Fold this sequence. Notes:
alpha+beta
Amino acid sequence: AKWWWAFVSFLGTVGVARAMAQDGGGALSTAILVLMSWCLVKENCARMTQVGVLLFMITCGLQLFLDLAGLIGSLGGRQRHFHLPTKGTAEKRIITTVVETHPFFDSK
């Protein structure tokens, strides 16, 4: 059971880190995993049934899918779009959009 408690502690640390990184959804989903893990492990793993472990595995799989989707979406880098003030007359306006692109991996 000590490895399970280490896992619960690790998940708790990840949840706090996600909350500090202002990842509310990630912190909430990690908190759900921590709560499920704690319920399975408390009282010397007395409640660790096959159904409980199966539900925990399904929840972990869903978390993996969501995190991988976010990672794959970020591999191309991130972009920030902003518009400069418009110029011109009422008949003809010039709208300038600036796009900042930052790569996923730093080239340094």
